[in-house]
Amino acid sequence: MIIEKKQINRFFLLATAPFLGLLLFLLFSSGPIHLEMETASYVPEPTLKQQTETLKQHLDKADQSVKVTINSIRKTAALYKQTTTAMNSIVSTAQTQALRPEYIYNRRITAKLGSAFERVDSDRIRIELYRVNPGTYQGYAMKVKLKDPSAMQMSLGRDHIGGAETTMQAVSRHGAVAGINAGGFADNGGKRYPLSTTVMNGKYLTGFQSSFKDLFFVGMDGSGKLIGGKFSNQSELDNMKPRFGATFVPVLLKNGQPMPIPEKWKVSPKRAPRTVIGNYKDDQLLIIVVDGYNENGSSGATLQELQSKMYGLGVMDAYNLDGGGSSSLIVNGRVVNNPSDGNLRPVPTHFLFYK
């Protein structure tokens, strides 16, 4: 029994020896024992007052930014307004300067005509009527500014080939504000046919006929410019893109220069009522209708006189239209000239002007 106790005590000594040794080492080792624990850093949550103050600071900054932005927009708007005003002024000045040469030119050619006694003015056309009385004959000049090319058209008598009507009838039937007789004609079988090449709405009524003898074609293109002259083949006239036009004799002026007048037309008849049409270099039209008592050659104007008149007025191209009893000028629903027949003559073609 004693032996067993000793064995048990020896066992516990051996079992606890390492722990006792470690404890003695820790107790007698130099320096204190430090036990360190890593603790998480603590950040206190902001109070409501701090949050309110922060929000106020942000709002103050936003308000300041808005004020700066609004001020910048106001300055930009003011600058834009100043720039726009300046640009509008520049454009207005440029437009005025651009129109000034046209104004000066128009005033110069108008001064040669005298004072207009009647005017028609709309957004499509401007018509001015003047008296022509150089002493040897008397008549009327009509200056026309086509603001819209469609403000001038050509009508066909009763709207069919062979038909005829007076200029007054054509003006009234088509609702035009003015009209003149146009090309020559030939009578056959009780009908009145347009002379030679005639174009309506860009189409040849009876086909193209090459210019022969003293005949010429005169009409308007799509842009409202007077075109005319002698054409040996259709392609020459096609290149000018005629919208409408008629034929008669002779050409008086071309490119501002007088053209030779055939001897026959100087004396057959020598004097007569006349209708001539021409254009200025700014494409305004000038039409002169001369009065006469009859067609026997003793009253009215000679072609040379009208050629000189148109030349002196600064016309570039001029063409003699049908005359005698055919000459007629209608404006605002009345006959302006004094037809030599005593009444207006029915003819197949008319140049009409629309308000």
TrEMBL record:
It comes from the Bacteria. One of its GO terms (molecular function) is hydrolase activity, acting on glycosyl bonds. Keywords: Glycosidase, Hydrolase. Pfam families: NAGPA. The keyword Cell membrane does not apply. Residues 174-353 form the Phosphodiester glycosidase domain. The keyword Membrane does not apply. This is Phosphodiester glycosidase family protein. It comes from Paenibacillus dendrobii.
